[in-house]
Amino acid sequence: MRISLLLAVLLAAGAVSAYGQELNGKDLWRKSLQGRNNLAAGKVFSFSPAPSYRLTTDKKDNKDLTDGKLVKRRDDRIWFDRNAVGWRTNEIYLTLDLGEKADLDKIVIRTLGGAPRFSFPDKLEAFVSNDGKLWHRSGTLSRLQPGEMEQHDNINFFYYDESKPVTVPLYLNLQASARYVLIKVSARGFFFTDEVAVLKADEKNSTFNDAFSRPGEELPLTGLIAKVRTGKLAVSKEFFMPQFFAFSDLRATKSKKSKAELILELPKDIEVYNPAGVWSSQANGDLIRWSRKLDLSDKYYSSSAVRLRSKSNKVSGKGYISTTVNGKLQFKSPLAIEVLDFPEFEPFEKLHVSLAWIGEDVQRSWPDFFKVWKRLGFNTVSSFPLHRKGKYTAEVLSFFEAAKKNNMKLILNLSPMIELQRTTPKKALESLKCTPKGFSICPSYFGEYWGRECDRLTSYVKLLKPDYVFFDIESWAEAFSRTENCQRCNEGAAQAGVDRQKFLLQCGVRHAADLKAAVAKGAKAANIPMPLIGSYDRSPAKATYQITRFADEYPKYTDMAQPSLYVAGNAEKVHNAVRYCAEKMDFNKKLIPFLTAGTYGEYEPEKLEAMILECFLNGAGGITYFKYNNFDTPEDFYYHARALALLRPYENLIVEGKQLKLASEPANAMISALQSNNEILLLAGNYSKSTPKVTVTLPGKAVKVVDAVTGKAVEVSGSKLALDIPAGKYRLIAVEMQ
């Protein structure tokens, strides 16, 4: 997306603060309700847990959010005002009974971010129900980091400059006919709001009531709750796969000294990988009760996972997940169990497939790792010096050697500025920042410790002999505004005879040049080919990223584009972004997008399949992922593998094929196609559910047309290919031309 177009979108959404302009939060609130019917007015909220911030809490908190009154303070610092409601916790549930069933459009919630200690929540989720017991998720809104701020749409994602306090309306989709609504807040230690509206639906779109087409779930609002995200336990019948858990601690009194356990009750056909003996087991009727201790004082306890495998092709019966606290059973959730049959295929030989953000220890601890990794279609492994504080044992190095013997490439992942902050002595660190209380290493610092960092990078390349070096996001997202009073930056700009913004962009070029030189030096010392260099979120879709411009970096200092596509399963956005980048790069395949199975919004695992297909059919030469624990269910890996298995027979076509622009009826149909000689691979998506029937005009007469998913022949009339595409799905078609 070009910056001019991006700015127009942000201005329309009211996100002008992303560019340093003033926001009037009260005006934005009034505009969001103008001419709309607010069904929440005068209703009473219930909360879990109870509001807990001293300056806002009073007896009328449950009515404060629906009384039509915003805080009186002109500066909108609502944490000082008792007309607001505040919490000091990380997870909050707000429930509202509208009294009767109604057609609902969206929730509007006015909330605060940007104050010292007070950030916007990481995520807001909306649920609807008609009985107040079984809830259906209708919308999710995720907070973006500055590096991804152009995705702000106030529908799925939001971003506001938090350099100073701002209170703004955020929007959550409902689009359903329901009586009850619930808002789940994933906060960052504190959460404040002073008004919530539920807007009546004046119109119904094609996805109205889609929330009720998905399975509902109970949402217990007290106790220590453990669940799996999908409500389903998916297991492989061949190899151990990870399953992560979602924890909610809604106890009224939270003692970290409480003795807690996580409990899984599973059919006997399910195996638990338990080499360290952290899980205890005992028979429990037809089930096996597996339990492990939870250390609630460990802030990473919620990252618990288990690796499971099925002994049979089909498992009978359900399982259960629960916890105990001090011996008392908390909420028990049922688990439907599904056995996954992963496709068999060989990894790509010419196209890149990696899960860049996976640590060495995770890879090494995975039983039969290389066998599993190949079966999932990955052809690389990853290394993280930062995770190891730069220290590599003989066992880790032997793992990388084994990877190469298994025809795996190696990625070296590095965030130079974060590494620099870790390794610089504390006494010297402040002098490297823009101000004594600086937000990061100064972008114009190129002194002794920067030189040491480049030398460290050289040593990593020499030691690990990587095939790729991926540089990650750095700490300069708001450098143009936050370096305003930096003496080093201002003096550097004056000496260069340019303004500070141009000077910082020059610094970005110097960083890229220094890093490439360090990689080249390490490669020469190791006597290996120069590794390919990529940098997260640098691509033609983002002309300027922090203090770098893609046009300045590529191809002189980086070898590829790596757009960030953390789009909550939206295959249309993937299609548009990859196609745009590929066109700007003349479809040279030097394009490896970053995908995710859950960052900035979880989604149904099957949507990952279409996202991968859209990447490869629109010009990508590979894909990579952030990050391992976003693959929180084996279903994520399953649909990833399914997409690659579908494409594997067409690897040469994908690598050598030319992009086709085919006419279609309707004209807005989402069509992607590659052609090599007389072969065409065509992808038609109906993700918005608006084009269930599409006719594509082929560039000549087709002699053979096959559905690449089912293997069945598809009828074609001359050059006209008529396709029925189920709602939210795609068709992948292989065509042999005359």
Polypeptide structure, described:
The strands form 9 sheets. Strands 1, 2, 3, 4, 5, 6, 7, 8 and 9 form a 9-stranded mixed beta sheet that branches. Strands 11, 14, 16, 17, 19, 20 and 21 form a 7-stranded mixed beta sheet that branches. A 5-stranded antiparallel beta sheet has the order 31-33-34-38-36. Helix content is 23%, strand content 30%. The longest helix has 27 residues, at 500-526. Mean pLDDT is 92; it is low at 1-21. It has 4 domains: 3-216, Galactose-binding domain-like (Jelly Rolls, Sandwich); 223-340, Immunoglobulin-like (Sandwich), CATH 2.60.40; 352-477 and 509-654, Glycosidases (TIM Barrel); 658-737, Immunoglobulin-like (Sandwich). Helix 6 links the parallel strand 23 and strand 24 (409-414). It is built from 17 helices and 38 strands. The chain has 738 residues and is α+β, with helices and mostly antiparallel strands. The protein is globular.
